[in-house]
Design brief:
single chain; about 400 residues; alpha/beta; Aspartate Aminotransferase, domain 1; Aspartate Aminotransferase, domain 2; 2 domains; 7-stranded mixed beta sheet; 13 helices; 18 strands; about 35% helix; globular; binds pyridoxal-5'-phosphate
């Protein structure tokens, strides 16, 4: 395997040292192949909101797989899943299940272009939308809004219709839209940006994007692959009270198995094949095992309503970390929302990707190493967020808090 891994961050290039290898996990604890028990704050980058190996999900998976892992024929459970999603997120009037967040975004972008008959997509620097070619861009030099490919193998022609703006900047959006309003198919955004550390939207920013998209007759796409079912039983769209035209989901709705979903206004979604002229398909789309896992997780979240308890525990930990850092004269920013937080070493708030780039990443790397030595696993990159799960109970977080305190002291 190139780099020894099947997804690059796992190779620990960003933090140094030897990557860990997982044997199994349970609750908040990840066990490595060399027998270490780590308190996990990476949590597979988001899907495992109830904790690892949650019995309800494992049982649902076992039952589903015994009935056959794939049929490529519609099942009752897919209908229940689509209905559960629509009930929780009413703006998703129609839902299509796919196999990853990347695929969901790819489909949303194609759909937006097909529906509007326009080409340009506006995204934000620091927002990640999976690894589809058109989304692998960075801000280009020169004219505002123009993007250039951020990966080899992505032809400039493929990203020529992707525009970029600074997250939380109104001027950057207005400049890009002014230039391209007649050809703007969609604005796509992570309503809470959680792929370069955590960046919260400024108050009113998402309403602003809604207004700009509407007046340009472009669609607004919320990429809720992380935020969907993470902060409430629904999307961040319920918290910010802004309704997008299309929403993408992934991670949590699969309960740890591969899945993605795209949904939105019926008239847009019904442009998808077989009803419409926008093509999309997948052998394993709506896979019965993934759907069983996802549905079990959604049902549990609906029943347990764990969101405010998780928020409370997470903010206690965040306050502890902030206090210890302060006591030791370290400047930290620890943005947090619900069960997501990230640690930036910086003396000013982090509002956009430029701010992220000025934080002291070498401190994060040290913190990562000091915590790993003390049995706590953070995401192996300064550009990822920490997640807690329902399994991160008071006892686990007390132990974790002691390790965090010692690690910060050791910095
Ligand atoms: C993880 C993620 C994706 C990509 O999902 P995959 O399942 O990894 O393809 C897309 N958008 C956001 C916001 C994500 O966090």
């Amino acid at each position: 395997m190139p780099g020894g891994v099947n997804s690059p961050v796992r190779a620990f290039k960003a933090v140094g040292g030897n990557p860990i290898f997982a044997r199994r996990a349970s609750g908040a604890i990840l066990e490595t192949t060399d027998g270490r028990q780590l308190i996990d704050f990476c949590m597979s980058f988001g899907p495992s909101i109830l904790g690892h190996a949650q019995p309800e999900i494992s049982d649902a998976v076992a039952r589903a797989v015994r009935d056959g892992a794939t049929f490529a024929v519609t099942t009752q459970a897919e209908i229940e899943m689509a209905e559960a999603i629509r009930e929780a997120i009413p703006s998703m009037e129609r839902v299509r299940l796919v196999s990853s967040g990347t695929e969901a975004v790819m489909t949303a972008v194609r759909l937006a272009r097909g529906f509007t008959g326009r080409k340009k997509i506006l995204k934000f620097t620091g927002c990640y939308h999976g690894h589809a070619d058109a989304m692998l861009v960075k801000a280009g030099s020169g004219v505002a809004g123009l993007a250039s490919a951020s990966s080899a193998g992505v032809p400039e022609a493929v990203v020529a219709d992707t525009l970029v703006a600074k997250y939380n900047s109104r001027d950057a959006v207005l400049a890009a839209v002014k230039e391209h309003a007649h050809d703007l198919a969609a604005i796509i955004v992570e309503p809470v940006a959680a792929n370069v550390g955590l960046m919260l939207p400024d108050p009113g920013y998402l309403e602003f994007l809604r207004k700009v998209a509407t007046s340009a007759k472009a669609l607004l796409i919320f990429d809720e692959v992380i935020t969907g079912f993470r902060l409430c039983y629904g999307g961040y769209q319920h918290i910010c009270k802004v309704t997008p035209d299309l929403t993408t989901l992934g991670k949590i709705i699969g309960g740890g198995l591969p899945i993605g979903a795209v949904g939105g206004r019926a008239e847009i979604m019904e442009r998808l094949a077989p009803l419409g002229d926008v093509y999309q398909a997948g052998t394993l789309s709506g896979n019965p095992v993934s759907v069983a896992a996802g549905l079990a997780q959604l049902r549990a979240l609906e029943r347990l309503d764990p969101f405010s308890a998780m928020e409370e525990r997470t903010s206690e930990l965040v306050q502890l970390i902030a206090q210890v850092a302060k006591d030791h004269g370290l400047h930290v920013q620890i943005p947090h929302i619900g069960s997501i937080f990230s640690v930036f070493f910086s003396d000013k708030p982090v509002r956009d990707f430029d701010d992220v780039m000025t934080t002291k990443k070498e401190y994060y790397i040290l913190l990562f190493q000091k915590l790993l030595e003390r049995g706590v696993y953070l995401p192996p990159s300064p550009f990822e967020v920490c997640f807690t799960s329902l399994a991160h109970d008071a006892n686990i977080l007390r132990r974790a808090g002691m390790a965090w305190s010692e690690a910060i002291r050791a910095l």
